[in-house]
Protein: DSD1 family PLP-dependent enzyme
Amino acid sequence: MIARSTLNDLETPFLAVNPATVAANIDRLRKHLDELGVPLRAHVKTAKSLDVAALLHDGRPGPITVSTLAEAEAFADAGYRDIVYAVGITPHKLARVTMLRRRGVDLVVLLDSVEQAAALATARTGMTGIPALIEIDCDGHRGGVRPDDPVLPVIARTLADGGAEVRGVLVHAGESYYADGADRLRAAAENERRCAVQAAEVLRAAGHEAPVVSVGSTPTAHFAADLTGVTEVRAGNFVFFDLVMAGIGVCSTADLAMTVVTTVIGHRLDKGWILTDGGWMATSRDRGTARQRVDQGYGLVADLDGELYPDLLMSDASQEHGVLSLRPGSTAALPDLPVGARVRILPNHACATAAQHDRYHVTEPDSTAVVAVWPRVQGW
Structure:
């Protein structure tokens, strides 16, 4: 807790979080997955916050996904024991993985090659090997092997022969972030499920139990209609949401739980600009909406009460300066924001924006009162 203050009292730029919106976002996804009968393994990479994670499982440690070993270590220190490290493993990280497993953490790693499997097979925790999920490529977005690739059972056999556990498969439908509209999002979710189940069946036919069939992204988690054969769903962005998610129809701007508070520092009325002290160091350079039907620049602009200014965008950014201007073609008037006025920037990409800061300033619902500061996990 901190001494009572408001969004007008803190040094800008900073992150503000509405915990009531976070709780509503969590409740929405949890209800959807409960209806489908599949548990959530939340990805903590977006918030990197023990306080946010505490909202996921009623204050108790639950299954999580991490993107760095620093996250795994911080959450292990807080009592989390069921963790998937969902970035391809490399040999030099195995010592830290082994240390966590010796502490009683069921830390599972990810891989997609025979080379990684061979390295993992040489690492042991006491008398047991390190469990692994094999990454499956369902849409060509990034890493993984296709479910029909002949190398898939070879990877599994390399693990098993070396004493490592073939825990199952993991799929991430990364291209779903570009699937605009409900029909395309549902199709992406079904393709993700189908590829994961197919890959698990290949492994089982080759003699591996492969008990875990893990799928997930924030878009597909919300639009999955059938999760037959899936054992868990991973998602992370949903706790905060952002303009990319709003742009493809996963949420509305009212669901964005995190904003960047900045201060007006000047004007260039000849250019139609309002200048702020929040540049890309505060919001990141992510321009994810530039590929969408509506380009939101570096973010939408609202007052401290959360009311959006009509057609006002953060249209440009340098390191410590933000430029606010009207959307091209707008007939709205540039708002009268004097030097010293504070505004909120609604971010394009919550993960990237959060990564620019080391803490969240937590407000009361429907208020500018700041009641707590939640730290973020730092490091790799």
Q: What stands out?
A: The first strand starts at residue 5 and ends at 6. The longest helix spans residues 182-205. The mean pLDDT is 96.
